[in-house]
């Protein structure tokens, strides 16, 4: 049986699919298209909750992770980074209501930004991301 939690590829892919699902529901059920917000230059992420802060801090480590990987060519830096992001995603979606909240647009943007960073990591590792489970 495949584990959906812990340090496994399934856990990482599940976190990504969960973010994509939230963005899709935002568009379908709440008429908030994250991609349109970005195109219209209305993209503002406001970080208020500790779980939002933790996730954004994890995302900010992306450049440092890339630099470390380029220095020694060990892919475990990417694995460790995307695992930490996935853990932060889990805490974020469990502690912060994204849909039907006053912060919905900001949180949807954070979901999209996180999904993009995760896809970049998957590409570096040769893992094909899943958009839904």
Defining traits:
133 residues, mainly alpha, 6 helices, 69% helix, globular
Describe the structure.
With 133 residues, the protein is mainly α. It is built from 6 helices and no strands. The longest helix is centred in the first third of the chain and has 22 residues, at 9-30.
Structural class: mainly alpha
Number of helices: 6
What integer is the average pLDDT? Answer: 93
Biggest sheet statistics: none
Can you lay out the helices and strands and say which pair or pack?
Layout: H1 9-30, H2 34-39, H3 50-60, H4 62-72, H5 76-95, H6 104-125
Provide a compact summary of the structure:
With about 130 residues, this protein is an all-alpha fold. It has helices spanning about 10-30, 35-40, 50-60, 60-70, 75-95, 105-125.
């Amino acid at each position: 049986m495949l584990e959906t939690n812990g340090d496994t590829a399934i856990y990482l892919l599940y976190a990504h699919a969960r973010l994509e699902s939230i963005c899709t529901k935002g568009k379908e059920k709440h008429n908030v298209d994250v991609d349109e917000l970005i195109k219209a230059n209305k993209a503002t992420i406001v970080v208020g909750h500790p779980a939002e802060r933790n996730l954004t801090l994890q995302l900010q480590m992306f450049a440092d992770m890339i630099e470390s990987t380029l220095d020694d060519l060990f892919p475990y830096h990417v694995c460790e980074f995307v695992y930490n992001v996935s853990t932060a995603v889990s805490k974020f979606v469990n502690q912060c209501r994204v849909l039907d909240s006053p912060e919905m647009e900001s949180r949807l943007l954070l979901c999209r930004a996180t999904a993009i960073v995760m896809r970049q990591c998957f590409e570096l590792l040769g893992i094909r991301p899943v958009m839904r489970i």
